[in-house]
Amino acid sequence: MPVPLPSSPPPRVSLTSRLRALWPTPHTIDAREKWRACCGAALGILLVAVAAAFWLEGAPASQYSLLAVALVAPLGASAVLVFALPSSPLAQPWSVLGGNTLSTLVGIACVKWVPDATLAAALAVSLALAVMFALRCLHPPGGAAALLMVLIGCDRFEFALSPVLIDSALLVVAGLIYNNLTRRPWPHVQKPATTNTTSRFSNADMDAALAHYNQVLDVSRDDLHALLEQAEASAYQRKMGELRCADVMSTQPISARQEMPLRAAWALMRKHKIKALPVIDRQNHLMGIVTVADFMQQIDLDAHEGVGWHLRALLRHSRKDQPANIVGQIMTRSVRVASFDRLLIDLVPVFSENGHRHIPIIDAERRLVGIITQSDLIKALYAAVRA
């Protein structure tokens, strides 16, 4: 009977490595964004403090004790969210107003009706969290507001209106002005659900992933979706590397001149089984493009004779002495083109979102040097993914 080999012991992890793993990763924002958030928090709290000093002017107390009455400590945490994380669901106006005010009411209720201070503190935070979940106003400073009411023994419900609600409203006003002036749109409005045909994952896929994760995310659904799409685009860019149009284009494409009869152009397209002909001049400069759709636009699709009959009639009467029946008459002159040295990844949205099927490739002198079709792009993407 074979004797099983002893399993190797798990590798030992040093204490230094364990402690290093607990150290947070660096923030991905630059210094300018950090200063923007810091200045916004300062201006927001300054606005609330100035308003509080104006209301309590002349009261018989020191300046610091006045602020202690008019300001609530959780407002500082609210300022961090509003100005440093303006796109977070936890930092939206309803979260600030509802989270702080409703949690304050919960804390005051616990002070009035729970005689034991220890139990009141625990119930205040947990019940405030339950209320914020139920009313979709989850706001971490709300938990601090509820606990603060127990710590100071506040049993007056009007405290939730003034100063808590008023302070929160002033902070929201400051956030509205400052964030939008510094190009951070706030509040972060949720976009209506749309069917995304360009992304590899749908809204249903996003719902399934969020349901499986089953935790609160401090990022909006729209931002999460945008980040995933940007990561997907970066992955394509990395896999495709420096692949450019010249690397995948069809060289020496079949082309036509403006004076070519429609019959000859149609025969050329049928012979080579293509659906578009770039139109060039004698110096090979791109002048336009003629497609099957251009031919279809010249016939009456509502007539009872049918498409085939009208198309044959159009081609039958195409002669060189009839300018209206040459390629230059029906071609599309406004053509979407790409330079031969352009990154291929840049053409993905052109094909997928704008409905293009053929992209002529030109050089610096606007001379036709190739053409890229949807098939060429798909082949290149498939090869890049497999690499």
Give the SSE map:
Layout: H1 15-22, H2 31-55, H3 63-70, H4 74-84, H5 93-113, H6 117-134, H7 140-152, H8 161-181, H9 203-213, H10 221-240, H11 245-248, E1 250-251, E2 256-257, H12 262-272, E3 276-280, E4 286-291, H13 292-296, H14 307-316, H15 327-330, E5 338-339, H16 348-354, E6 358-362, E7 368-373, H17 374-386
Parallel strand pairs: 2-3, 5-6
Antiparallel strand pairs: 1-7, 3-4, 6-7
Helix pairs in contact: 2-4, 2-8, 4-7, 4-8, 5-6, 5-7, 5-8, 6-7
How many H/I helices?
A: 17
The total tally of domains equals 2
SSE pattern, N- to C-terminal: HHHHHHHHHHHEEHEEHHHEHEEH
Low-confidence stretches: 300-307, 319-323
Tell me the strand percentage band. 5-15%
Percent range of helical residues: 40-55%
End-to-end separation: 45 Å
Query: pLDDT average, as an integer?
Result: 82
Instruction: Report strand order across the widest sheet.
Output: 1-7-6-5
Largest sheet: 4 strands, mixed
Question: Could you characterize what this model shows?
Answer:
This protein is of the alpha/beta class and 387 residues long. It has helices spanning 15-22, 31-55, 63-70, 74-84, 93-113, 117-134, 140-152, 161-181, 203-213, 221-240, 245-248, 262-272, 292-296, 307-316, 327-330, 348-354, 374-386, and strands at residues 250-251, 256-257, 276-280, 286-291, 338-339, 358-362, 368-373. Helix 2 runs antiparallel to helix 4 (74-84) and helix 2 packs antiparallel against helix 8 (161-181). The chain is elongated. It has two domains: 28-181, no CATH class; 246-386, CBS-domain. Strand 3 (276-280) and strand 4 (286-291) form a beta hairpin. Helices cover 54% and strands 7% of the residues. The strands form two sheets. The chain has a four-stranded mixed beta sheet with strand order 1-7-6-5. Strands 2-3-4 form a three-stranded mixed beta sheet.
